[in-house]
Amino acid sequence: MSDRIFGAVGVLLAIGFAFAALAIEESFLSDAVGPKAFPLIIAAILGLSSAVIALKPDAAPEWPSLPRLAEILAAVVVMVLYAQFLPVVGFVIATAFAATYLTWRLGSGLIASVVTGVGTSLGIYVIFHLVLGLSLARGPLGF
Amino acid sequence: MDTLASLADGFAIALTWQNLALALLGCFLGTIMGALPGLGPSNGVAILIPLAFTLGLGATPSLILLTSVYYGAMYGGRISSILLNIPGDEPAMMTCLDGHPMAQKGMAGQALSLSGIASFVGAFFATWGLIFLAPQLVKIALLFGPAEYFALFALAFMTLGGVSSTNQAKSAFAAALGLGLAMIGVDTQTGVPRFTFGEVHLYDGLDFLVAIVGLFALSEVFIFLEHRHGNASGDAAKVKVGRLTPPMSMLKETTPTMARSTVLGFIAGVLPGAGASLGSFISYSMEKRLVDQNGKTFGKGDPRGVAAPEAGNNAAAGGALVPMLALGVPGSGTTAVLLAVLLSLNITPGPLLFTQNPDVVWGLIAALFIANFMLLAMNIPMVGLFTRVLMVPPRILMPIVAMVSFVGIYGISGSSFDLLVMIGFGVMGWVLRKLDVPLVPIILGTLLGNSMENNLRRAITIDNGDWFTLIDSPLSLVLWAIAIIGFVLPLIVGRKVKAQMHQNRDEEGAISD
């Protein structure tokens, strides 16, 4: 069943891609092929292979249970927040929070997670910023 | 003789303190990454690329660092195979079969050192193979025009699924998806924006490094979260390592095995779409058929069963560099990632690389030799250190992987937008791995898409818009024929090999070498 849905999504994607390719505005200066032809070939392959996947599906994979799925979703949310807050609060603070969260969700105790998270953040800061001179996001506190 | 002179020049480049230090660092990190289940050569190299750039390393030093990681990971994978019966990376899968039984018999130390020696033999002779084969391939490639290049790219994509492919339709889907992603951005020939949906960030196209790190490294973090594999996968400390040198008789017994496996592995590596996993697989099965017809000793701790896959996968790792350097078309995941390094440094791999940037090529090859000796030295006496690394639990390791990925990508562009794109690729990688869609063709598509299109358009423009120019020359006809055979053949014979190869790998093993 998973493959049938996947194939159907793939076909839709291919159709969307083809329409987007047709919508490309050609400039008055163009070569013999133009900017549309290759994307259209790709859309055709994408559509064909998706159709084959939908028609001849493999055995369905084992999808995670709902709580596990929520787990991944939560991790994604945390990472998105991390990306947004990184320039605002600075590298060390943002990373400490994100690393603590991930460590905690992978099964460490609360205190151990905080220690690991702060350690990871400071460790990366020391190695990459202080030793190797990489520029990391600067927060209001200067780190 | 020309070759040897170039090699000598290469050594002159590689033997600076900085390059030696980078090779040593790369070997060390590579061995650790190979040994840790969950980190393999492709994602190991992937998370280090952005760092190599932001540190401002030049082309040769970056490549030396990253290929040392690649070779190191090939060595390191065997450690957890032998001690824990869990392959540290996919190519080390076959080493479990005889390596772990040897460890159970109390011969862990001998298995580790023997496999270290086998790895060295495989990698050492494969590097020589690279030296002699790559220039020959370059001579052929110099005859290629745009039409032939287009056929060559098509060949690479069509054979990438290879004999071990689970589902050719999914390989084709992955390739088309990657090519489609490469189309995003301003068209190089006419200057019109394509698939950007008005988003200014997308005008430059997607940075393929962002895609690689997301697909390879972040998706691994999601896999671990899904299963909550938080604890170390086993207790490596409990296994008694024992004597660390194999007896002479064992070495003597395994010498012919290593020789045969090196040759086989190298060939498997050079062929498109094969890579190190296949190299170790065919070496092992061939050796089993040859010396143990009745199935008496293989699988029960036969030293030859340890030497064969290790020599095979390391030889294949060297072989896989041949098409990447000589043609600019990688045949495996990690070489695709290495290609990304070259492209980001504005170096176009392919036949011209050997004439335009001989310092890069020969410096790299010399560094491979040096790295190999370092790895041998590291992997036998210091193997105890690496076994201790195995005890770092993923609940500590995986957040570090995630954070280092973020640091690297942010370091390149300093933009949160790229981080969001990377997270998107991470989620996509996770879903696709669940659905058993290979990730390597996606990467290859994003890397090669633009140059594939340019060659197509150049070929047709030269011939005044005649599409038949694509199949006009005998050379391109041959390439198309190989491509079609390579795509159709696995549909017929692939099932059997695939079934055997996938017997003992984990479910989401879509990350290959």
Automatic annotation (TrEMBL), chain A:
Listed Pfam families: TctB
Keywords, in A-Z order: Membrane, Transmembrane, Transmembrane helix
Stretches that traverse the bilayer: 36-55, 76-104, 110-137
InterPro entries: DUF1468
Domain DUF1468 stretches: 6-136
Protein name listed in UniProt: Tripartite tricarboxylate transporter TctB family protein
UniProtKB/TrEMBL annotation, chain B:
Keyword Hydrolase in annotation: no
Superkingdom in the source lineage: Bacteria
Domain DUF112: 20-444
Transmembrane segments: 20-39, 45-71, 111-134, 140-160, 172-188, 208-225, 262-284, 324-348, 360-380, 400-423, 473-493
Keywords: Membrane, Transmembrane, Transmembrane helix
InterPro entries tied to this protein: DUF112_TM
Protein name (Swiss-Prot/TrEMBL): Tripartite tricarboxylate transporter TctA family protein
